[in-house]
Amino acid sequence: MFESLKLGDFILLVLGGILFFVLTGLLIFCVVKQRPYRFILGSFILPIVMIGFPAIQIIDFKNGLVIKDQQIADLEKTMAKNPTGDDVLEQANQLISEIESNPEAVNSPEVQKQIRRLQTVKEMAVVAREVQSDDVSAVDLDKKLKRLESGSKNHAVNSVGMVKVRDLVAQKAVTELKEEKDLIEKDIQRNNAPPAARLKKTAELVKVIESSKRATQSEDVSKLLRTAKSIRDFQPRDPGVPKPPPNLLSDEKRTTDSITIDK
């Protein structure tokens, strides 16, 4: 409760409390000894002011927490609707700056929780933007989301946004899996065992796609997943065995070049 107070306000509150109890003791003493005590009654104004000013600061801090909670909740809803929106990161950074502008309040558990919520929103928004980049793989983005899920203290609040971002990552994984599948099929047509690294990435991409419920509801994506899983079991044939016809392992149509996750 006192984390929001500056050092001077806290000292003022403590001294005001001490003075109040001292005056109370003097008042009781004067009443018992039947001595004049009017001057003591007037002196109570000072400790009341000394205690009241920091108390107002505490009330303002609590009201500020309520307002910030609502602002953060609104930002989380905005991020869930449009994770790649330009204003999400800007608003999150602005709210964090406003919260950290009071150094004495930053150590408050309530404030720390708010900062964690905003950091989670920021990192999910960054992941959503990186989906559009060719420099970051869907597997790496999925790892970032898993770290967020394991480290976040706010799963319930961020669940909608997390699902939306995970769908975007799964969409990227579909595109990458299609490319890996084509490369592996070329190796198979040459009767070459696919590189272990490529098979590993294929397996990881399958897991990323399967983590998105919306992605797996697409029939085209389901066919792609079945093909990718069958490729993992490929063994080079004996040279004396006739070469299989092209695309034997794949049961998907060539129209899967434009595979998208149903929205």
Question: Would you give an account of this structure?
Answer:
The protein has helices at 7-32, 38-43, 45-81, 86-100, 103-106, 109-130, 138-151, 155-189, 196-210, 213-216, 219-231. It has 263 residues and is an all-alpha fold. It has two domains: 7-130, no CATH class; 168-258. Helix 3 packs parallel to helix 8 (155-189) and helix 8 packs across helix 11 (219-231). It is rod-shaped and about 110 Å long. The relative contact order is 0.08.
Task: Summarize the structure in short.
With 263 residues, this protein is mostly helical.
Features:
disordered C terminus, mainly alpha, 11 helices
Percentage beta strand: under 5%
Tally of separate helices: 11
Which ranges are low-confidence, i.e. pLDDT below 50, for 5 or more consecutive residues? 245-263
Distance between the termini: 47 Å
Listing every helix as H and every strand as E from the N terminus to the C terminus, the arrangement reads HHHHHHHHHHH
